Write the structure tokens for this entry.
Amino acid sequence: MIMSGRRGGAPLPQSAPRPGDEVLRIDGLEVEFGSGPARTTALRGIDLTLHAGRVLGVAGESGCGKTTSALAVMGLLPRGAAVRGSIRYRGTELLGLPEKELRRYRGRHLAMIFQETTTALNPVIRAGDQLMMAARAHVRGSRADARERVRAALTDVRLADADRVMASYPHELSGGMCQRVIIAMALSCGSAVLFADEPTTALDVSVQEEILGLIRGLVTRRRLAVMMISHDLAVLADVCDDIAVMYRGEIVESGPAPAVLGSPAHPYTRGLLDCLPTLQGRRDTLPELPSDPAGTPTVPGCRFRPRCGWAVDACREPPDLVPVLAGQPRTSRCWRSTAVLGHGAREAGRAPGIPAAADHEGRG
Ligand SMILES: Nc1ncnc2c1ncn2[C@@H]1O[C@H](COP(=O)(O)OP(=O)(O)OP(=O)(O)O)[C@@H](O)[C@H]1O
Ligand SMILES: [Mg+2]
């Protein structure tokens, strides 16, 4: 993996972070895959901050760069991916650290859970042995200490019959149980940051709610800093304190979840919200918006312009991500943020929607 970033930084604090402490700071993160004509720019300068005891939701359509953001922090992007910018964990720059050093952070400080629980666990090793291996790999101490931490973690993820779970192979556990085992793995290692990449998408709705409630509880009790990745704004609305909406490798809107979801300031966020199912049952599932690869656009200016019902001539210049209103922790990458925000306040009706990808002019 090609990386550039500032090396070193403050020594790692040994104490647990306090609620609200900044634990992870991503600045200007850029990621490119491949080279020459096959080059894909997946991230174009992402800034994100995670705080202890808070959940940051990252939303956006397929291919906008959600998973790439998390994998870049974990140091899990494939070889050959070019990564630039800065990723600081409690003051220490991670970008550019040798793999051996980064491995100390992965698992012990930074953990990630995925949608596909079956691939995250080794199918031929009992769950308990996998938990013990992880607990012992990352934290020094006796076998008895590790077993104690694993048991505490299993209790914390509300897996009542810990003995049976530990003696089971992954295929003997349900999807929801596997996801709990994986979360317990992160807890038993003492991770302070959890990346949850569509952690409930593959689960039944009732199990989904249990897992989301569980994560929310752990955020409060263990002061975890969580990045919750989802294409589903309804899921994020339930669990997140803050939201960042991504479009084609950029953040287009961010801020406290109630503000962003209650009165969006970017036409793309508005469009995503318009696709949510309603209580009246007009839509019973979230319609898939057209996929929109993060390739280089051939149109100048705002990357969302070809799909935007709010576009004006000014949008031929690329907008920056700037505060929506002075004194508020909200940002939007739109020349017309104030109008979009005002429209939401004035009108109960629908805002301009998102035309289908086929309508795009010059997609990249
Ligand atoms: N290993 C890779 N090699 C080449 N391109 C990649 C690779 N991984 C991701 N990409 C590209 O980077 C962009 C961002 O992908 P990413 O997986 O981060 O999207 P995502 O927002 O997580 O999408 P989804 O909701 O489908 O999971 C996409 O254009 C994708 O095709
Ligand atoms: Mg993804």
Notes: The chain has a mean pLDDT of 84. The first strand starts at residue 2 and ends at 4.
